[in-house]
Amino acid sequence: xxxxxxxxxxxxxxxxxxxxxxxxxxxxxxxxxxxxxxxxxxxxxxxxxxxxxxxxxxxxxxxxxxxxxxxxxxxxxxxxxxxxxxxxxxxxxxxxxxxxxxxxxxxxxxxxxxxxxxxxxxxxxxxxxxxxxxxxxxxxxxxxxxxxxxxxxxxxxxxxxxxxxxxxxxxxxxxxxxxxxxxxxxxxxxxxxxxxxxxxxxxxxxxxxxxxxxxxxxxxxxxxxxxxxxxxxxxxxxxxxxxxxxxxxxxxxxxxxxxxxxxxxxxxxxxxxxxxxxxxxxxxxxxxxxxxxxxxxxxxxxxxxxxxxxxxxxxxxxxxxxxxxxxx
Amino acid sequence: xxxxxxxxxxxxxxxxxxxxxxxxxxxxxxxxxxxxxxxxxxxxxxxxxxxxxxxxxxxxxxxxxxxxxxxxxxxxxxxxxxxxxxxxxxxxxxxxxxxxxxxxxxxxxxxxxxxxxxxxxxxxxxxxxxxxxxxxxxxxxxxxxxxxxxxxxxxxxxxxxxxxxxxxxxxxxxxxxxxxxxxxxxxxxxxxxxxxxxxxxxxxxxxxxxxxxxxxxxxxxxxxxxxxxxxxxxxxxxxxxxxxxxxxxxxxxxxxxxxxxxxxxxxxxxxxxxxxxxxxxxxxxxxxxxxxxx
Lengths: 328, 294
Prior knowledge:
The complex is a heterodimer of chains A (about 325) and B (about 290).
Chain A: H1 2-17, H2 19-39, E1 48-53, E2 66-71, H3 74-82, E3 88-91, E4 96-100, H4 104-115, E5 122-126, H5 133-164, H6 166-171, H7 177-207, H8 215-237, H9 243-260, H10 272-279, H11 282-296, H12 304-324
Parallel strand pairs in A: 1-2, 1-3, 4-5
Antiparallel strand pairs in A: 3-4
Helix pairs in contact in A: 1-7, 2-5, 2-7, 5-7, 5-8, 5-9, 5-11, 7-8, 8-11, 8-12, 11-12
Chain B: E1 3-14, E2 17-28, E3 32-36, H1 43-50, E4 58-63, E5 66-67, H2 70-75, E6 76-79, H3 91-99, H4 108-114, H5 130-142, E7 148-152, H6 160-175, E8 179-184, H7 187-193, E9 196-201, E10 204-209, H8 211-218, E11 222-227, E12 242-245, E13 248-253, H9 256-265, E14 274-277, H10 280-288
Helix pairs in contact in B: 5-6
């Protein structure tokens, strides 16, 4: 434990004093979130969105400046109304429509529906705060930042240590591989979770994004997610001597995760093989679990499969990483 | 003195090279043992095998009669030829870090004093001069109060003053009866510090013993040197055992008076003449035909 703590302390000091790396870890995600908030602050608001369940020929469907989106799941469609993702939901089979009582767009579209004539429809109302793209994307951005910090922070640092002889020097001490690796993992874990919390708080102050679930559960997801991504970084760096090769492998791992793990867009409707591939990536489970907590208020049972997957992945990466690790 | 480290038929093979070709050594406790040889002789590989850093291809290394293990790691100190330190740490924090890795480390103040680190104890590792850095690395090697210290070319790249300061540090370690294994290609350093030396070439030991004994064993002559530019006749006409080397004519003789008489007879200018005993550098040249610092 004494040796582990000595290694942990030294690594933490090294990171805290590396102002460029620390600044990048803190500032990059905040800038990214704010940038997205600015880009999507004016989301084509002149276009109204109406969800349509079933087939029909109501004259309202001829209205201009309205986008009609065919939907097939009523429960999910109503959630979209609650979140202001659509302004009105029209059900042909039930001769019913729903609007969000707090949505100005919903009020306008309802007037258009009534003015269009046609068959009389019954009205249902729901309420709920608007879900902006920024609310949807923030769990992805935090997850992505976690991924970069884990893969580059562990992967590159270990390769640099190996290349410049730090690991060789440590090999000549009683420090064991397990102690060394655990110190690296816990140092990076503390950093990632702290940065994620700080970024979350600072962005929330500015953007006031949605959070319907438990903060403790979100923290658990971040810890397990960071653990598994750090273990993945460790696996990359277990034997490599070259920065270039390590960089290549980290890019090969991070780009698919960035594109397939639901950071920027949902994979709903994508081919099954893409969804299957995405499910093999730890970031997918981090993002989906965090998004479920933040947007749907999901509890531990709803995200249990994601947590289990992260634990299994962490153990697999860690065991292989420790077994294959070489000081030189 | 008991043997502290013993190596038996040690071999290190790489895909295209056999770096160490079956050497045997027994090093007594408390001495300063020098490992000499030119670059590529196999001395660093031998050191790293003894340190437990590089696994041998075959052969045995025993520390206090046992294979290298946990006890060895706790009781040995190492200063590599090229050691990187963690960045962004101060000298004190670096020492503290290594202090935390050992079960019975030496008192920090003692190590700071022994290695004269006070003046730059709060400096960042990256701001140290060559000499300061070597002193810190020696401090790290001594932090666990080791029984045996490996110093791999510790003064390479230091200016003469820093090198002499470092020798004083090594002498202070010797005074504690700590065994020192010193790899160097400075013959003067080996002559100053080592109780016993081995000379390696091509992965083999070509000579072993105390420096004075080795010199006595190989040389009973003196070396008379005159600048080549002062030689008024061709070297072959001297009628002496002489070679030209680095701008000097080196004459090996067991009768200096007679040799000087012969040179005077040839009207050779002796104003810049040197007479000296053979040293380890001469021994190395004699044994291998090579300079040590290639």
